[in-house]
Specification:
Elements: E1 13-17, H1 22-33, E2 37-42, H2 45-55, E3 62-66, H3 72-86, E4 91-94, H4 109-138, E5 140-145, H5 157-176, E6 182-187, E7 193-194, H6 196-202, H7 206-209, E8 221-222
Parallel strand pairs: 1-2, 1-4, 2-3, 4-5, 5-6, 7-8
Helix pairs in contact: 3-4, 4-5
């Protein structure tokens, strides 16, 4: 049950990258609850279809699109198809991303580039294309999901650097695009939010549990929270 008024986003259209799992899925479920039509995008078609059937079995609110946000043509197609099929884009949530724990000394250039291309370049491409193809003339809202990297991100330096760059990109875009009615913000969920998907990718739940001693609640938060 949402704390917001029922039907608050009725008639609105959103794109959520990485919307099939974790925080992205929680965001998608909330938007659907509020009456929003949502396009979820991911590289994994199997995860998309599973999430779609679970979140919207009657297929009234949810559309799935396979998209690798690191690939410019994929992003262009995602935006153009959304406009063509749903008529507009009111909201973009850049939640898609990926990283892996590693000390910098053992981090390969391939691994570094993969994280930068996904978390930074992918976000840039999504922002640029949604602006060029729709929001520059119609306005809208962009929310970039980053991370609590403001004091550094040991063992995750690649994503810390990428997310810090997205934080700055967000500030630049919010000024550049304000006169066109586009609002751009960033949200930084803390490392105390437990995501089963992320834990599986990292291969170690302790990546999250190390935060518990410093939490007033003495427990990890959930993606829905």
């Amino acid at each position: 049950m949402s704390v917001f008024r029922s039907g608050l986003f009725k008639g609105k259209v959103a794109i959520v990258t990485g919307g099939a799992t974790g925080i992205g899925r929680a965001i998608t479920e909330e938007l659907i609850t509020l009456g929003c039509r949502v396009v979820i995008a991911s590289r994994n078609e199997e995860k998309l279809q599973k999430a779609s059937l679970e979140m919207d079995p009657k297929q009234k609110f949810l559309v799935t699109k396979v998209c690798n946000i690191r690939k410019e043509e994929h992003v262009k197609t995602l935006i153009s198809q959304t406009v063509s099929e749903l008529g507009k884009i009111d909201y973009l949530v850049n939640n898609g991303g990926g990283q892996f724990p590693s000390p910098v000394s053992k981090m390969s250039l391939k691994g570094w580039n993969a994280v930068i291309e996904t978390n930074l370049t992918g976000t840039f491409l999504m922002c640029r294309e949604v602006y060029e193809q729709w929001m520059s003339e119609h306005g809208g809202v962009i929310v970039n999901i980053i991370a609590d990297m403001f004091r550094g991100f040991p063992m995750m330096a690649h994503t810390g650097a990428a997310r810090a760059a997205v934080d700055n990109l967000t500030k630049s875009l919010s000024v550049e695009w304000a006169e066109n009615g586009v609002r751009v913000n960033a949200i930084a969920p803390g490392s105390s939010i437990y995501s089963p998907t992320a834990a599986k990718n990292y291969g170690d739940r302790n990546v999250f549990e190390g935060a518990i001693p410093g939490l007033p609640t003495q427990r990890l938060g959930t993606t829905r929270e």
